[in-house]
Amino acid sequence: MEYELLLSGALLCIGLYGVLARRNGIIVLMSIEIILNASILNFVAFSSYSGNPSGQIFALLGIAVAAAEAAVGLAVFLSIYQTHGSIELDKIRFLKW
Amino acid sequence: MAVDWELIAFFILSAFEIIGSVLVVINKRLVRAAFWLAMTLVTIGVIYLLFLSEFVFLIQILVYAGAVPVLMVFGIMLTRRKIMDEPGQEAPE
Amino acid sequence: MPEFWINMGPQHPMTHGLWNMKVKVDGETITDAKPEIGYLHRGYEKIMEVREFQKNVVLTDRLCYVSSITWSHAYCLAVEKMMGIETPERGQWIRVISLELQRIASHLMWLASYGPDLGLLTGLLWCLRERELFLDLIQLMSGARMNQNYPRVGGVRNDLPENFEAMCKRSIEHFLEKLENEYPKIFHESKVFRMRTEGVGTLSAVDAINWGVTGPNLRACGVNVDLRRLDPYETYEEIDFEPQIWQDGGVGDSYARFVVRFNELRESCNIIRQALEKMPKTGPYRVKPPRRAEGEGYAKTEDSRGEALFYVIGDGDDRPYRVKIRSPVFCTMAATPILLRGNKLADVVSILGSVDVCVGEMDK
Amino acid sequence: MSAVVRAAPVVVSGRPVPLIEKEVLGGLKAAFGAKLLDGKVLRPGHLAVTIDRDDLIPVCTYLQKTIGFEHLSCITAVDWKDRFDCTYHIENYYNGCMVQVTAHIPYDDPKIKSLTGLWNAANYHEREAWDLMGIEFEGHPNLERILLPQDFKFHPLRKDFAQEVDRQYITRRKLRGGK
Amino acid sequence: MSAPLIPNLFAVCKVLVAAIIGIVQSIIYALSGPIPPLRGLGDWLGLDAVITVVTYLIVVTIVVLWVTVLNLFTVMWVERKLYSRLQDRYGIMISIWSLPFWPFNRVHRPTHKGLGYLQNLADGVKLIQKENITPRNADSAMFHISPVLIASSTLMVFAVLPWSSGFYVANLDLGILFILAAFSLAPLGILIAGYAANNKYTLVGGFRAAAMLLSYSIPMVLAVIALVVFTGTLDPVKIVQQQDRPLVAFGTTLPLPAWYVFGPQFLGFLIFSVAMIAEMERVPFDIPEAEAELVEGWTTEYSGMRFGIVFAFKWLRMLAACALISILYLGGWSGPVFTTLSVGGIPVPIVPEEIWFLLRIYFLAAFFVVLSWSVPRVRIDQILNIGWKRLIPYSLLAILVAAGFRVLG
User: Which of A23, B81, E274, E287 has the most CB atoms around its CB within 10 Å?
Assistant: First the structure.
């Protein structure tokens, strides 16, 4: 049990590092995917150890949300790219138009 | 000699998982990052399989590993201009 | 999505020959196009200045390698007009037959290459199969399949062989049967084919005339211009045929160009049949041309791709002083940017395939 | 209203009209008079006029706009060693009449007005004439080499461009290896 | 109700492997007199886990060979012969007589006169000899990895695809879902290949592949969902068993098998077939490698056997797609049984299930071949329109219809 928690914590830390340290928007999006995966892993692990299938249902919900989030995030980054010509996050100083 | 094969498999997969996700966040080339992301997603799906939740595993591969990295690479292609202009400008960051 | 240029050519499955179509795409939509030609420029106009009148026929054969006879015939006609000689009647009829046979062969080659352009390889094989019939007829008539060297200044090289008429009729019967029953199944009766061709590459009649687009491409815009009617040469006056025009609507798209060419196949068969009926069975087919000539002569003929114009100037020597070749594809190529703009990348093949590009005559 | 005057650019019919060339020539002579250096009927449906290069634009505008010669078929540049000739074949699709307008250009100043304002078709023809004969068309939007490479230095159709003046025979002696 | 030729591939192989390992074990035990440490090796070989692992390896090898060597070559041969017939030509004709090393070759025997089954082998040999070119500025690692990705994801399909009720590697409860998941992995490889080759044609081809495959995997999955509503299971063997009975409709027994095509699932069958043509990248929908405008699409820069792999796995996907359609809608391997022989007490069916299944697969393949060689290619915007505006609403309708029939009985 503790191993799964360790793995999920490690994934969370790696994803947080990616979100905080990298400037490229798409890498940030990928890091968010990794964080989401860490939480879904927890859901599945707890459901497996407790024998309660509702954790798996949460996992399925999380997967669907993550896929939708990736699509929406990419759409946002594409429009940012079209207006700013870049997806470097620290170069985008204003989000007005 | 009772070897916990599941634990060994879990350790191997976790090693893959952590190496892959580290490679995702430190990679300079975005397409490689997307490839490693796909690998971590598939690996985590196999970890779900260790927890005897096949359905989550299959949905993970079908939706997550099948669609999300493709979307990522799609976005990478659409936002990289350098390859269009002059061949060979593989963009670092 | 950034815009970028895509080179379609010089080595590309789309280009039937060597030319480079630079296409600027925004995603899949074409925003600009630029043809780059000249890869096959052989300096014909210069070479022809140092060869005698008769010997240039060999060169003009090679202007377009799929419709040799029409080109060398246009050259011979121009030289005859400059010299002021007239082909005997049987020679004219033989020329008409050979021209129409060559036109069918050329159009079939176009149709054959249009198939793979749209991803329909079966069309290629079927059209080449029927093209063999006409190549055999041409071979029977002139002795060669590709560069016939058949028209002469003042007539044609040799008379028709004995059983030519019967074989010609039989081949045409066979071909017409295929044309009516088989080809529509994979071409214009196919829904996907119409989806690919209808509404792409539209060209209005005013634009087409202004850009100098001629031939079937112009008739596909709804303009009733056929030089066989408008400025009859040889014996086309005596033949009853209908120039094929796109009737429905003023703008010509790829489908209109397809339909016009496809109907021209049928119409050419009709012309050949009439010519076989009406031609005198015996008689001279050639007059001897003078060796030297002075003056100028021009001939415009309806080539299989458009208006072929030869303008020959002689200065009293036995060689032409200046020969100008007007290639229809050369002028159509100038209009391709306005044909392509606004369409999708996949329509480049559908449009450029339908205008029937022959690089040999374009680059001279 | 004669069959000549037809300003609408879209043609519906295409049959030769007899004696059209005399009518066109008469109209041209009436409109330009002495500016036509030469004007003659060559064949039925075909006439040739000669003008100076300054009159090119008016004559062609008259031909296109007034009497409906809508098709610029060909532009030919000829090197006569003392002058250049630029010959325009302009055709009327309605009645099948073709006018051959020849403009004289002096040898040392090969320049002439561009016709791209009237016919878009003139674009490629003029580029070709510049490429091969070196006649400069003033007002052309994009006058660069078209058939020859961009870095080609000469205009090969001129008569002084080095060419093989010998007849292109292969004699039996040559075939056997002699001179 | 015919029977399979192989009752259970895994069990058969396990018996064989156990027998062989038993022989090896007895040899080792015999040798362990002079060399005592070998006894431990013998004991280890006798473990059940070792036998299972070895059996799995052997079963996977058998299925891969069966798929690639036999069925891949046959389906390629079917396609090439069939479209040659369609185009009035002979097609492939290299036979064993024309191979240079064939010892019984007579001198004046015409070499190109034969069935042509070996032509694919000859083409493969030719491709192996060719140079593998990597473009200079390509992202070389990704460029090399993507054929592997495509090939492995395609072979994953055959891990759970049953060839009869006994001929499979593993039978999962969620087998159909696994197959669809494996199918959905290939676009990533295609996209990476298109990006990594550093070529505009491959880039545009990759775009098109991603856009098309994403839009067509949705109706594919939706059609399967409609079927699942109807069947209540995702196990391919059970789905086939459900279809292996006569069709009862309106209270009468019709002279038809109860395939899911004949009924409310017909719409789903059409949608699934169209989506599968797109997955196979065959001609009406082969815009990712439209050879007319993009030279070879995303496979432009591949050469040598890498191109061969990419190319051959297109046919493998076609094979898998035909098998899937057949399992889901056309009754799989169910077929009439004529008689069974008895060979040494073991009943051997004369026309076993595998034959029925292969017949159905090749018939479907022939249908797709004829279809794809008689229509032109569709444009990218049209193909996306068909996918998003037609197929997805229709597949939702199919789900509704299936649910309605399920509720009303």
Answer: E287
Spatial distance between the Cα atoms of E38 and E179, rounded to a whole number of angstroms: 44
* Lowest-confidence pick of C133-142, C290-299, E38-47: E38-47
Q: How many helices (H) and strands (E) does chain A have?
A: 3, 0
Local structure of C152: helix, strand or coil:
strand
Q: Which residue in chain C has the smallest CA separation from D117? A: C210
Residues from chain D contacting residue C81 (CB–CB below 8 Å): 43
SS3 D81: coil
Query: Burial, C180: exposed, middle or buried (Cβ in 10 Å; 0-12, 13-18, 19+)?
Result: exposed
- Average the pLDDT over E60-69 and give the result: 85
Chains D and A share 3 or more Cβ pairs within 8 Å:
no
Cα angle: E44, vertex E49, E53; to 5 degrees:
110
| Contacts with B66 from chain A: Cβ below 8 Å | none
Phi then psi for E220, rounded to 5 degrees? -60, -50
Q: What is the DSSP letter of D177?
A: T
Question: What is the topology classification, in CATH, of domain B13-80?
Answer: Four Helix Bundle (Hemerythrin (Met), subunit A) (1.20.120)
The full set of domain ranges for chain E reads 92-129, 138-408
Note if the bond before B87 is cis, omega within 30 degrees: no
| Alpha-carbon span E264 to E398, nearest angstrom | 8
Tokens for C289, please give them: 């041309």
Q: What is the number of other CB atoms lying within 10 angstroms of the CB of residue E30?
A: 11
- CA C87 to the chain's CA centroid: 23
**Interface mutation target, options B43, B44, B63, chain A, most CBs of A under 10 Å:** B44
Q: Which residues of B touch E170 (CB under 8 A)?
A: none
Which domain covers residue A75, as residue numbers? 2-91
Q: What confidence tens digit (pLDDT) does each residue in D64-98 have?
A: 888 878 888 888 888 888 888 888 888 888 777 88
State which amino acid sits at residue D154.
F
Which CATH fold topology does C3-363 show? Cytochrome-c3 Hydrogenase; chain B (1.10.645)
> Which two tokens mark D162?
């080095």
Domain membership of residue D140 as a residue range? 20-146+158-175
- Report the run of H or E that residue C269 belongs to, with start and end: helix C254-278
Nearest to C33 by CA among C47, C22, C43, C42: C22
Where are chain B's structural domains? 13-80
C313 phi and psi angles, rounded to 5 deg = -120, 130
Q: Kind of pairing, strands D111-113 and D136-138?
A: parallel
Confidence of residue C40 (pLDDT cuts 50, 70, 90): confident
Residue C120: closest CA among C359, C353, C362, C361? C353
CATH of the domain at D82: 3.30.460.80
Tell me which chain E residues have a C-beta less than 8 angstroms from the C-beta of B70. Answer: 187-188, 191, 210, 213-214
What does the DSSP 8-state code read for residue C10?
S
Please state the domain count of chain A: 1
Query: What angle is formed at CA E20 by the lines to CA E18 and CA E22, rounded to 5 degrees?
Result: 65
Q: What ipTM did this prediction achieve?
A: 0.79
How many domains are contained in chain D?
1
Q: How do residues A54-95 score in pLDDT, each as one tens digit? A: 888 888 888 888 888 888 888 888 877 777 766 677 666 665
Question: CA nearest A22 in B: which residue?
Answer: B25
Contact predicate E302/E362, CB 8 Å = no
C300 touches chain D (CB under 8 A): yes
Give residue ranges of E with CB < 8 Å to any C CB.
83, 86-89, 200-201, 204, 207-208, 283-284, 286-287, 290-293, 295, 373-382
The domain locations on chain C are 3-363
Residue carrying the six token digits 């969370």:
A12
